[in-house]
Amino acid sequence: MTDFQNLSVNELQTVIENAEKALKNKLVNHRKEIITQIKELAASIDVTVEIIENDKKSPRKDVKVPAKYRHPNDPSKIWTGRGMMPKWLRTLIEEGHDSSEFKI
């Protein structure tokens, strides 16, 4: 077994990527074997089975909303315009600023 403490960051990242690929392949193959077994069992009692595979991910989960507002003094503070207004923007508006001043 490999001593992971002695590996560089790049080597560890490669090990992780290879392990993830191997795991994914094993899971896919295991799933195919199970589906084959189910179909064989169903056929043995003269039943047909239709297995519908839904591998599609919801398109919204991976969509990142771009920022619409940025703090004038701290560019790391941003807001997409969704959800609750952040304290920094609320404070600036209470001080008399207009939210349009901070649009990106």
Automatic annotation (TrEMBL):
Domain DNA-binding protein H-NS-like C-terminal: 57-104
One Gene Ontology term, aspect cellular component: cytosol
Any Pfam family the entry gives: Histone_HNS
Record-linked InterPro entries: H-NS_C_dom, H-NS_C_dom_sf
An MF annotation (GO) of this entry: transcription cis-regulatory region binding
Keyword field contains Cell membrane: no
Keywords: Cytoplasm, DNA-binding
Subcellular location: Cytoplasm, Nucleoid
Keyword Lipid biosynthesis in record: no
Source domain of life: Bacteria
Family (UniProt): Belongs to the histone-like protein H-NS family.
Descriptive protein name: DNA-binding protein H-NS
